[in-house]
Fold this sequence. Notes:
The complex is a heterodimer.
Chain A: H1 13-25, H2 33-44, H3 48-59, H4 66-104, H5 114-124, H6 128-139, H7 146-162, H8 166-174, H9 181-194, H10 201-211, H11 219-231, H12 235-242, E1 252-256, E2 268-272, H13 276-296, H14 303-316, H15 320-331, H16 338-354, H17 358-374, H18 378-391, H19 396-406, H20 412-427, H21 433-443, H22 457-469, H23 473-486, H24 491-504, E3 511-513
Antiparallel strand pairs in A: 1-2
Helix pairs in contact in A: 1-2, 1-4, 2-3, 3-4, 4-5, 4-13, 4-14, 4-22, 4-24, 5-6, 5-7, 6-7, 7-8, 7-9, 9-10, 9-11, 10-11, 11-12, 11-13, 12-13, 13-14, 14-15, 14-16, 15-16, 16-17, 16-18, 17-18, 17-19, 18-19, 18-20, 19-20, 20-21, 21-22, 22-23, 23-24
Chain B: H1 2-13, E1 35-40, H2 55-64, E2 69-71, E3 77-79, E4 82-87, E5 93-98, H3 117-128, E6 143-150, E7 153-158, H4 165-168, E8 201-206, E9 212-216, E10 229-234, H5 238-246, E11 252-253, H6 261-265, E12 270-274, E13 278-285, H7 295-304, H8 307-315, E14 319-321, H9 344-353, E15 357-358, E16 364-366, E17 369-370, E18 372-378, H10 384-399, E19 403-409, H11 411-420, E20 426-433, H12 440-443, H13 461-472, H14 476-493, E21 496-498, E22 500-502, E23 505-509, H15 543-550
Parallel strand pairs in B: 1-10, 1-11, 18-19, 18-20
Antiparallel strand pairs in B: 2-3, 4-5, 5-7, 6-7, 8-9, 9-10, 11-23, 12-23, 13-20, 13-21, 14-22, 15-16, 16-17
Helix pairs in contact in B: 7-9, 13-14
Amino acid sequence: xxxxxxxxxxxxxxxxxxxxxxxxxxxxxxxxxxxxxxxxxxxxxxxxxxxxxxxxxxxxxxxxxxxxxxxxxxxxxxxxxxxxxxxxxxxxxxxxxxxxxxxxxxxxxxxxxxxxxxxxxxxxxxxxxxxxxxxxxxxxxxxxxxxxxxxxxxxxxxxxxxxxxxxxxxxxxxxxxxxxxxxxxxxxxxxxxxxxxxxxxxxxxxxxxxxxxxxxxxxxxxxxxxxxxxxxxxxxxxxxxxxxxxxxxxxxxxxxxxxxxxxxxxxxxxxxxxxxxxxxxxxxxxxxxxxxxxxxxxxxxxxxxxxxxxxxxxxxxxxxxxxxxxxxxxxxxxxxxxxxxxxxxxxxxxxxxxxxxxxxxxxxxxxxxxxxxxxxxxxxxxxxxxxxxxxxxxxxxxxxxxxxxxxxxxxxxxxxxxxxxxxxxxxxxxxxxxxxxxxxxxxxxxxxxxxxxxxxxxxxxxxxxxxxxxxxxxxxxxxxxxxxxxxxxxxxxxxxxxxxxxxxxxxxxxxxxx
Amino acid sequence: xxxxxxxxxxxxxxxxxxxxxxxxxxxxxxxxxxxxxxxxxxxxxxxxxxxxxxxxxxxxxxxxxxxxxxxxxxxxxxxxxxxxxxxxxxxxxxxxxxxxxxxxxxxxxxxxxxxxxxxxxxxxxxxxxxxxxxxxxxxxxxxxxxxxxxxxxxxxxxxxxxxxxxxxxxxxxxxxxxxxxxxxxxxxxxxxxxxxxxxxxxxxxxxxxxxxxxxxxxxxxxxxxxxxxxxxxxxxxxxxxxxxxxxxxxxxxxxxxxxxxxxxxxxxxxxxxxxxxxxxxxxxxxxxxxxxxxxxxxxxxxxxxxxxxxxxxxxxxxxxxxxxxxxxxxxxxxxxxxxxxxxxxxxxxxxxxxxxxxxxxxxxxxxxxxxxxxxxxxxxxxxxxxxxxxxxxxxxxxxxxxxxxxxxxxxxxxxxxxxxxxxxxxxxxxxxxxxxxxxxxxxxxxxxxxxxxxxxxxxxxxxxxxxxxxxxxxxxxxxxxxxxxxxxxxxxxxxxxxxxxxxxxxxxxxxxxxxxxxxxxxxxxxxxxxxxxxxxxxxxxxxxxxxxxxx
Lengths: 514, 551
């Protein structure tokens, strides 16, 4: 049994490989060895933002260091994975929060901006028709400034574009005349999204950003700028934009009513967040990963590991056609061990399935699950199930194998199997919340249940989603409380989760001492 | 007025009428039998739901009593002693139809009596009687009147519509024929030690050792619970409780010390189950001591202690620092407020600013009064970890010239010192909240007094005003805004040094099946728990799969 297959922890494969590449290259390059060890530890414990910061810092110290470049690429790849999960969760949570808020509010102090942000959330969720309804309701209210009416119009145009009404979208966008930077940033994002507009959106956004030099940039501008950079593949500009920015900031704070207590500015303060931010970050990190790893895939000493990472990253992003060549190149490598080859075989079968050769690929997937189960390679069986699930293949064989291995006992080595089975019930067999929670809880490290040090962020977010769906709100909030220390952009999930909790809980108002 | 009208219309259109399931024997196919012994960190002073105010008693009363309604784990109001209910159009009148098949646990030598509307009215009247000492009173001041309008119909009239009113009727009902005094309930009434209820278990015996034995209620209206007996065993020390579990003297621990989690996690005989109680620990200050009335002094104490270090060293970092009066899992937590950093220099300068100077013995003093204070800790908290926390607190404060005398007291003696006599300068304790995160009883100035929760006599006009405003509003986002402000204000005011919330885990032997734990009340679903004959647990089975089969 290879060391990889016998791994007694839940750390993703990327971590093991990183550690390997670190060992391979130790002493060959000028990076600060102590810092590199810290980076490895940070990645191992899922502190991806901190690892990125340290790598960037070291990048500035030396002219060229392929080791740092490879590590950065692989960290971006991991960040892309977790931010995609964050984004899915953020959209679901925001839609639920804003919908509930609309349903509960009445009276003169009701929120007006909730309609704008609900419309935006629906648009992000792909519900363009509903989005138009709420955006239209927003702009029709009295007391809405021209600035925000225009923002609503631009979002309506994007919704129309999504619905295939390209002419309607174009007409609406063309009607927006403004010198306001907030609105201009909306136009640039819409232009990048729809392809409409005479001016290159990246130039427009560069100009707007320049106006905020030395000032606090509104989150709406930052979010729009990020959308533009992602759509136009301006990776470095995107990374520069978010550096040292407060990604936890709200997009808009609405104050309504007067409080009887003098120390309160208003009776009600509602914070709204930019729904596109987290998805744009995920896309940015994916592009950064592909860029970095693509460069390293040509480097003589880094190429095998880089090709492996790139193949994995592309597969996880659903870009199987591009992944195939890297899978094949990595498979041909002599320097990658049996564990990596085993994982490449899973990717190969998954890619084959996605290219249309479903029957033969399905056989391969099932055979891999059976083989690895016979060899008690728990982590590999879990990976077969995860890939199987992601590509939409039939997972009966791999699910059975993973469940049997999970049944081997309650210890760290079976957690990965429990994780994969729990994820299956969460994402594929929707509605089986209790079952999904049981398996995912079995995969959770009990000694530090909310800490990312010993728990994969994807596991924690999956559990948080399930707890939100089953109304165990405090479980959800505790998870995000910890995660947000490393990933500040999750603030919008915390605030929305708190909002849902405050509106949906039932209790007698009890408190006890102990 | 408009708001009330709008609510009226809403309530009319959503008037609820729900039917309860018929009382009958359980047909879930799960086995009856077995004894479950569980470890508690003390013995409750009282066993009734009205005078008690601690978690140990709450767990017992959950097995002994029922409310009119319950809240299921999907946050829905479900029938309990009430089979149905109606809400008036203006949201002020709640009429409950009661089950007719409910009997009180029989008193020794007596027949079991039926449960009626008079019992409900009696409970309310006792709860609100001025001579009844209970923390519940403040929560039910919104009710204007309760009356029986039939043997099995009871009507509550509210002073005003409130948010989530129905959920408030989860309070436990006691029998009119229970207490010796027909008007109010005090801690010297025999009923508080030998209560009878309607719940799935009845009190059988309280042993001289403090063990409380509960036996299955054969006539329970939801059907006989599966496990024959629950035995609560008190332990003075969490480490000893852990050993008792390891050596099979008990089957369950309601709260595992974080330091024991790795050991239990690796032991295939046991399961660890997390439950998210909204709780936090704190050092609370007594404002009756004039030296502690200055918030700069209290803030200095907070700045002087390294909470991160304590959490990491004493609890394996299995928790989260809190910055204010809510747990991080609460909807009310203000995410903008960060815990104060460890800064002994700033602590010293705050004390100097407050007029303190070092005395000849190095202890800070003001107007000849030294900063020498008593810290009272309940002995039930005397685990290794808590001892270390207390010792560390003492050492940290010593470094800024504050002398602390630590006293460990037995649970009941500690409660009397804190809630009755108010003889302390500082206490170490924890609060646990249900989902409401209602802090009004902790910090409102009207809650200062005997057996009231504002034991530190904290007073602040703005805090009072905000708490009242939060109680009166029917707007969720307004209440949230107010709580955010309260969090910030109390963090600044520092009536407590807010410490941390710890991960809550219960540990139990795998022979106990279908275990679902209520995050606050713990035993709410215990009537479904079961122990298969012959303890057919398969120690090597994966826990999730085993549970999947057991459900």
